Amino acid sequence: MKIKDKQIIFFYTVKGSTIKRVILLDILLGTVMYYVVDMVASSTIIAMIGSFIGTEGVKRLPRPINRRIITVT
After folding, report:
1. Which stretches are transmembrane (predicted)?
2. What is the pTM of this model?
3. From CA 50, how far away is CA 27, in angstroms rounded?
4. DSSP string across the chain
5. How many domains does one find in the chain?
6. Position 46 in a domain
7. Range of 26's domain?
């Protein structure tokens, strides 16, 4: 059997939280940032760059660590 005859199928799973994060950050926040910068700067190119920088900046913010306090009695 030749190598070209083999078919490889990949399955990728994506968590629902990842999809929600993409929708909230990239789409909603990017749109809001675009319109805010567009109103302030009145330039479409500056608004596009500003929305890109804004969403990437929010993605790179440090996330708080969820620490659970366990009390033993």
Report:
1. 32-53
2. 0.59
3. 14
4. --GGG----------HHHHHHIIIIIIIIHHHHHHHHHHHH--HHHHHHHHHHHHHHHHTSPPPP--------
5. 1
6. yes
7. 12-58
Locate tokens 């993409």: which residue?
Answer: 22
Four-residue CA torsion sign, 29, 31, 32, 37: positive
If one counts every other C-beta atom within 10 angstroms of the C-beta of residue 36, the result is 14
Give residue 7's Cα distance to chain centre: 32
Give domain status of residue 21, yes or no. yes
Q: Which residue has the tokens 């929708």?
A: 23
Token pair in block for residue 42: 């009145």
| Tokens of residue 6, six digits | 């083999």
Do 37 and 3 touch, CB atoms closer than 8 A?
A: no
